[in-house]
């Protein structure tokens, strides 16, 4: 049998989770099959990692916030009662347990450059890269919640632009520690000669900048990837500029393929402006897939999920993301006609997609309650595979960042129904290509030569 | 058969390791059986955890430094070449992998209160306490290396007394987050009623102090132990005062039982002064055991180890601990006669034990090179068990903090030869008593009522 059709580009799969209850599906922890309350148990994470590796996912992406959502109703209580990303545990602690039961799956961990010291942070990531044998990624965020800033010793958030300025220097310090301080062959472990590390293979970074002063050596010997794979998701202008400079994979959000397409083109253009290969960065939009053996069963599953949706929960999350409290508006009031600029911008994400349509708080809540700001695809294996191929090709993206409606149910369904169909179409891998996350996602072991971190190499 | 003798008090076993090469045995990474260079591999840690649980150890204690030893020869190079605690990885990252393969072993992790933010740190420990189901301890340190301070954004170290002042307020914030912010029954997960967390079961801590301002809620729901088991090892006057207030287990060092005895009495007296039960805190001296099937084999093993000892490595570590560079002295020069106060205090730990004996740099190095500042016991199972019983009874301590000469060899020998002998004597447990670290080491699930952290409970 000869395969005659040329398959489209590889579709990379990334699972989106968070060390909390009902991550992007406010209220759905009330669904009898949802297990997200087990976010604090090791076996929730190890079982999930094994499942995702079976489905040949590139990575599990773990989101994080270091605060509570307290914009909606000007209070944290709606979020607390509804468990909307609170309680929320630390995202780094379960990684080694998952790495121990898998061999290929990557782990993209969210850590804010606003609240860490680069010298100590670089050691954490190098340690995880060693323990996982090169399967760690860092989703670089600069933090958006005021409530986090207040509890971490800052009166107010660092202003948005200055946060990216600081993040830029933070990365510079990290590159020096990860790429410059130790040579590949610095550790010789010469037992007879009594030399563990060659003194000429290691050097202090002598960094003295605006925000950080780090004179010393990196504390860790070189890890398999050195710099962890760099993910970024910023949608603002400075966020996009930062991503075009540093990111190796970018998470984006859009309600329809034709909304994504210009965003993707903009990213690839910015990469070129930075003298980087515009195809070298993987772009992965947020999407939620509800699937089953047939289209009808998938539709029924979707309807069932919506019974558990939380209006308050959706607007609590939306309040944190947008900074806007929609509690003062009638649920059925068309917001496009509310004459304040703030509310206009709050619905901009939606109106960009449908300029002629008005959105009400109820419609926004209905949208957000399954899969956050991303769209929901509902259908059997072939319909979903068709749609994902269409999205990938129309929007020119490299794969998807897949949120759950319920966990691990949504991921189990993907692995059972959708992955085999995409593998038959030769869009999803049947075996992993390499040993490390960067080898699997980007086809190379280290930062590319056109990446700014590469110039710190000796 | 009736047991007629009354056994002595329980001896608790604690293993002492660090995420680095040759932790307390500078140079012994050159021994062919030493595996400490595998400090960066998950299976080194998971194998060790399984071994220690088989030996009914209470906990694995992981030390840490966030800098390099650069006092000796006024340079970091001797440490770097000899791998004297450099490279050194983060101590928290391997915990969940070990927790996944054990059910009882505790993990005492070293984290400095000088370089963390309590709001984020409290979340890390709660997360690990959840993942391990209540088996996490925190070894509270305030950091002694200048080189760490310089790389973490401080021009010089925070002065010693102020560090303990800051640590004291750091603990206060943590107690409020761990003990006060959430009630035991705050999380109800009422699916029908849509209430995950009862709003009246949770409260912001509203902390406003000298060093920290933390207005908000703890981000984590209550973990099994809430406050992790608190370890401390400070030997200075403010360190001892801090331990007498906060510690539930204390690591100490002394060269002989009669040197330890007054130190232990002093700790128990200080506990009474703090209105705490002087027997409620477990005191564990540092000791290294070299054992084999017979006394002769153990002696041969010890002689073999000494071939791999590093003079420079020992004095590099000693330089970091004492702040003193002994590189300017002849190795055989008796230091007690050097007329500088600094050098006097450097050998004080030794001269306290033997006031009439002089110590040379060579003798100090020989002492330090196996087991750091602690003593080394050499012998077959019965001789070691006799000595450990003698130490426990003479010095009035509750167990031992056992360092390795080579790893995991030293721990394997302990589990094979010494633990069964101590179990026969009913000094070491044959089964674990409880589910959590605090239940196993202290016989209770939460902080005692006489502990200062308990008063933050509602």
Overview of the structural elements:
The structure is a homodimer of 458-residue chains. Chain A is built from 16 helices and 13 strands. With 458 residues, chain A is of the alpha/beta class. Chain A has one domain (12-447): TIM Barrel, CATH 3.20.20.30. In chain A, helix 4 crosses helix 6 and helix 7 packs across helix 8. The longest helix of chain A has 21 residues, at 160-180. The first copy, chain A, is globular, with a radius of gyration of 22 Å. At the A-B interface, helix 1, helix 2, helix 3, helix 4 and helix 5 of A face helix 1, helix 2, helix 3, helix 4 and helix 5 of B.
Secondary structure elements and their pairing?
Two copies of one chain form a homodimer.
Chain A: E1 12-18, H1 42-54, E2 59-63, H2 77-82, H3 95-100, E3 106-112, H4 118-131, E4 136-141, H5 146-151, H6 160-180, E5 187-190, E6 195-197, E7 207-208, E8 213-214, E9 229-232, H7 237-246, E10 249-252, H8 257-273, E11 282-291, H9 295-306, H10 311-322, H11 341-346, H12 348-353, H13 361-368, E12 376-379, H14 381-395, E13 399-403, H15 409-424, H16 437-442
Parallel strand pairs in A: 1-2, 1-13, 2-3, 3-4, 4-9, 9-10, 10-11, 11-12, 11-13
Antiparallel strand pairs in A: 5-6, 7-8
């Amino acid at each position: 049998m000869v395969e005659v059709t040329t398959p489209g580009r590889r579709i990379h799969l990334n699972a989106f989770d968070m060390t909390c209850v009902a991550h992007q599906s406010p209220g759905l922890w009330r669904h009898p099959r949802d297990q997200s309350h087990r976010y604090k148990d090791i076996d929730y994470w190890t079982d999930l990692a094994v499942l995702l590796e079976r489905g040949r996912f590139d990575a599990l992406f773990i989101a994080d916030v270091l605060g509570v959502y307290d914009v909606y109703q000007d209070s944290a209580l709606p979020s607390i009662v509804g468990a909307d990303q609170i309680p929320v545990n630390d995202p780094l602690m379960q990684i080694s347990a998952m790495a121990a039961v898998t061999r290929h799956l990557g782990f993209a961990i969210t850590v804010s450059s606003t609240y860490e010291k680069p010298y100590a942070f670089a050691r954490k990531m190098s340690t995880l890269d060693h323990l996982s044998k090169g399967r760690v990624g860092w989703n670089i965020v600069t933090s958006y919640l005021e409530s986090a800033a207040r509890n971490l010793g800052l009166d107010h958030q660092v202003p948005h632009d200055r946060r990216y300025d600081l993040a830029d220097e933070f990365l510079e310090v990290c590159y020096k520690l990860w790429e410059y301080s130790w040579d590949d062959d610095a550790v010789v472990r010469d037992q007879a000669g009594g030399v563990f590390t060659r003194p000429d293979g290691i050097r202090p970074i002598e960094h003295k900048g605006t925000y950080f002063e780090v004179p010393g050596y990196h504390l860790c010997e070189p890890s398999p990837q050195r710099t962890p794979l760099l993910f970024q998701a910023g949608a603002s202008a400075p966020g996009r500029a930062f991503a075009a400079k540093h990111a190796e994979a970018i998470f984006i959000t859009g309600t329809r393929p034709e909304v994504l397409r210009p965003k993707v083109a903009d990213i690839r253009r910015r990469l070129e402006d930075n003298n980087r290969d515009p195809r070298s960065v993987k772009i992965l939009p947020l999407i939620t897939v509800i699937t089953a053996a047939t289209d009808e069963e998938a539709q029924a599953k979707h309807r069932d999920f919506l019974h558990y949706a939380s209006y308050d929960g959706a607007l609590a999350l939306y309040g944190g993301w947008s900074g806007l409290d929609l509690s003062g508006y009638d649920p059925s009031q068309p917001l496009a006609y509310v004459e304040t600029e703030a509310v206009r911008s709050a619905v901009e994400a939606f109106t960009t997609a449908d300029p002629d349509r008005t959105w009400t708080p109820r419609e926004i809540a209905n949208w957000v309650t399954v899969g956050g700001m991303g769209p929901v695809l509902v259908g059997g294996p072939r319909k979903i595979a068709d749609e994902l191929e269409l999205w990938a090709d129309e929007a020119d993206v490299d794969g998807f960042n897949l949120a759950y409606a319920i966990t691990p149910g949504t991921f189990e369904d993907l692995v059972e129904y959708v992955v085999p169909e995409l593998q038959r179409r030769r869009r999803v891998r049947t075996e992993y290509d390499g040993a490390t996350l960067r080898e699997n996602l980007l086809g190379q072991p280290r930062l590319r030569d056109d990446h700014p971190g590469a110039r710190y190499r000796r």
